[in-house]
Amino acid sequence: MASTSVTDPLNLGLSGLASGIDTSSVVDALMNIAKQPQLALQHKKDQANARSVALGAIKAELNGLKGLADDLSSPGLYANVQSAFSSDSTKVDVVKTSGAGTGGTSITVSRLASSQQRTYSYSENDASDTTIDFGNDASGKPYSQLTVPAGTKIADLATLINGASNIPVYAAAITDPNDPTGNTQLLVLSSRTTGSGGDFSVKSDSTTGLSEIAADAKAHPISTAQQTFDYTPDPVNPTTLTINGTNVNIAANATVDDVVTAINGAGTSVTASKDSNGRLVMTSNTAGSAGNFTASGSQLAAYSATTGQDSTMSNLNAQYSIDGGPLQYATSNIVANAIPGLQLTLKAVSPDPVTITVSSPAPDTDAIKQKVHDFVDSYNALMSDLTSRLNEKPVIPPSQSSDYLKGLFFGDSLLSNIQDRLRTLVSSPIGSNSSLNLLSQIGISTGATTGDGTINQDSVNGKLTIDDDKLSAMLASDPTSVQTLLGGTLGKSGLSQLIDGALGPEVQAGGDFDTLISQANSQVSDYAGQISDWDQRLSDQQDRLKAQFAAMESALSKSQTTQSWLSGQIAGLQANR
Questions:
Q1: pTM, entire model
Q2: What is the DSSP string of 222-290?
């Protein structure tokens, strides 16, 4: 008897071909019911994990509050310090670097320190790389040579210089202000060091592509006078050279070398030499304008001359006076020695004196107030968080996954106890000084619960407010008692010590929070194991259901095939009668 199977022989996932029932949907529905215990475990795992994370966050908040309370107990917070102030910090600012004399000092700034600047024309080399050599620093150590790639434009050269290390300058590409066409670009190099110590140079013998425009230099160092001559000997008669009024006798037919020897032996205040072209060179023995000299003689023809110049580098130094005294100078606008114990920053020229005032030693009330504000801000944030967690109710019945994570701390006894303890602590007498033992006496309180016809919910919730004027007044009138109240007096219990006592057992290693976090983490691990076990159990159950429904479909298919064969046989018998 031939048979035909209709039970998905190609395993295409088709179901109910024999029965007409969507067996896959039936299996899925049965499995959804079977997964409910595992889903409940997953929600419990998520709740335990969320509780662990929340407990860690609350512990961190408590530790933060405890740390800020500890800051209030530091004796250094209440130590006498000096403060320095400027009457015009836009012109002269001040920072105290050590103990300074109490009182006021006036300073007048007539010039700010600036950097040496030199201007150069630039010739781009498209064929090969070029080099810029900045020579040596003041100690004789060479600066880095800068390689300029072929084809570098002047703007790119400025960028290259500014990005280089171990060179003494910054660079800017500018349009030549003396070129009416606006087509000429110049390179301005500015020393990275202000003042007279910031001089730099570009070595002409090992630098290519740059040519200095000397007249545009912002300042220049001292230079030495030098004169160069073509010398023609008299083959017959002795001659005389006159240098600064001193006659130097020259023999007939003397060579340049003979002239050099004669000059250097004559005490003329110059030194003679011969250059590579055989010319006679005279260089003053004295630098600057004082070393300028005259030289003449019938055998001398002037070739070139450089005048000795005095340094103008000091014009780059800051210039100021203290209390109307003599002018003083600094190579930087940050001046450390003008007023002992203070560092001044010169920001602008000030024709009118700027007064620098140093206070008498006293506690830094601004620092104390900031620490009080930090503590109160942290306290209020903690109270807000605890209130939110304690008041959030569970969602019953939950309709989505996020509902299971709500109300985890609703009415929690540990959080309620902490909140009650802190509220009681900040509103109760502190210490043994009956005249000043409440935080409200120094301006720290929950404020009024009502006002302007409305309820102040922050006050109802126990949040603190600060009356800055009252706190400042108490710090001014009785700083010692305020220090003791806040916990800053050694050997006496104040706010800081009470906060530490209230929160220490909860947040210490192995304390209540660590225990609860450990328990929650253990639950997460336990639930994860159970969920894993259920994965295997559900997989086995799904396989069994699929096999059962497949067997049912196969049996139905065979029955239907047999029925079809019998119907055919009967029909055939009837037809042969």
A1: 0.60
A2: ----EEEEEE---SSS-EEEEETTEEEEE-TT--HHHHHHHHHTTT-SEEEEE-TTS-EEEEESS-SGG
